[in-house]
Amino acid sequence: AVINFENVDFRYDGAEEPVLSALTLRIPEGEMCLVIGPSGSGKTTLLRMINGLVPHFTGGTISGTVSVADRSTAHHRPRDLADLVGFVGQDPFAGFVADTVEDELAYAMESLGVPTDIMRRRVEETLDLLGLTALRRRALRGLSGGEAQRVAIGAAMTAHPRVLVLDEPTSALDPSAAEDVLASLQRLVHDLGVTVVLAEHRLERVAQYADRVVLVPGGGRPVIVGTPADVLRDSALAPPVVALARTAGWSATPLSVREARRSAPQLREQLSGSTDAETVATSRPERDHSSSAIELRDVRVGYGRREVLHGTSLTIDGGQVVALMGRNGAGKSTLLSAMAGLRTPFRGRVRIAGLDPAVLAPHDLVTTVGLVPQQAADLLYAESVDLECRQTDRDAQLAPGTTAAVLARIAPWVPKSAHPADLSEGSRLAVALSVVLAPDPTVLLLDEPTRGLDLSAKDLLIQVLREAAERGRTVVLATHDVELVAEVASRTIVVADGEIVADGTTRRIVTSSPMFAPQVSKVLAPLELLTVREVESVLARTLATSERDGKDQIS
């Protein structure tokens, strides 16, 4: 095996319990290993052990041995393993050292002394492989989150490491870009024998590519290792196709849409023969309110000389949950920034609840519009989670404990004494969500709100957003998470190159698009059912109808 964990225990300084306990794991060469688990369970810690960031950079107490290609991480620091292990963390911007995309792709090779002619060829190959050619001379600081993630992956790949470690590599990528990246990783594994270890919450994207799954349950409990089908079959973290298989009672556990469609004809026939399917498929009407919560008229926004939004006009009523979708760099985050008053248009106007957000006083702003950006850490500045919650209560003039109560509902696992910088990406996002949700703003803007969240945390967030909409609040989500959109959004707007190219009900938009359709929709097409919950609802109604008809016949 190229990666070996032998009876490893690890505990962070001051922690009450170990993150990992008695971990023994061997990962052979040329394998794609998927690491899953609840938010904050220790997945990132496990990944960082592979290149020595844990404990050389983080501190903490470790016992047992971790080795990569027979090099012990106890005696080799991250720089000593750089030729063996390429690492991409959850925040790609944190790992950048150059100014432009092209320079960043070349940096690791320069550090390793790769000859110039080889370096040039690899940069060109990587630009083509990850669809970065148009960005080659762009400044890194001007990239979208998804573009930055692709650059970070490319920078790790150019050095041709034997092991590639990726922490949520598709979390900020649009569905098409995610497929391209995963296909590239699969080629590295199959054709070049590279060992890829990645942690992901978007299991619907990656489960079908993995050779094995490592489930990290958290709390120092033993990890579970097995094939994807064996581990996910009974797991609460299962992707929609696995959950659909359970609901339908299939004996096989599908990991891809293709596998699920092969098992679905009988279920599709059963559902299509039910009048309840049409009832469920039209059960998410848009709320009709007389007053608009968000109004944009001919809005043009740019960065320097580059115009990003080209005359955008949009009206969103109160009580709607609206999804913004589109490719990386399409202008979704810029649109949210304009709505929040953070970026002033050089033409057009923005009104939130009839007010210009750019001129509102801070207290009025937080109760009118709240934005959770892609980089959740931008909102957090206190020394602990508890202090962050208390400061939010004071700033927004809320009753003491209000923000802490919101956090306890969304992410009860987050320790109140922890420094926000020490939290996992998902836990940090949960704290930022709580800070913005607590003042209960009229308009709530969320940029990639499920990044780093496991399925249970996502379900809690969905419930919170539904309740906000029922209170008349307006929620706008910029997201690549098609499963989230299918669950919660009543309306979907597709943005491309700074312009709105599609706008309609979520069911109509996503079922007409191969890129944005959720897994259940693809499996059951042409039926317009989007989620496992909708399938369960139809089956339950069908069963109730059959039982009622049976009783009527008996009587």
Would you mind describing this structure in some detail?
This protein is an alpha/beta fold. 39% of the residues lie in helices and 21% in strands. The chain is built from 22 helices and 19 strands. The protein has a six-stranded mixed sheet with strand order 6-7-8-3-9-10, sandwiched between helices. A hairpin with a 2-residue loop joins strand 4 (61-68) and strand 5. Helix 3 runs parallel beside helix 5 and helix 12 (275-281) runs antiparallel to helix 22 (532-554). The model has no long low-confidence stretch (mean pLDDT 91).
In short:
This protein is of the alpha/beta class and 555 residues long. Helix content is 39%, strand content 21%.
Amount of helix: 25-40%
Determine Rg (CA atoms, Å). 24 Å
* Structural shape: globular
Number of helices: 22
Task: Kindly estimate the percentage of residues that lie in beta strands according to DSSP.
Answer: 15-25%
In whole angstroms, how far apart are the ends?
68 Å
Class based on secondary structure composition and strand pairing:
alpha/beta
> How many individual β-strands?
19
In the predicted model, the low-confidence regions spanning at least 5 consecutive residues are none
Strand arrangement across the biggest beta sheet = 6-7-8-3-9-10
Arithmetic mean pLDDT: 91
- Main sheet overview: 6 strands, mixed
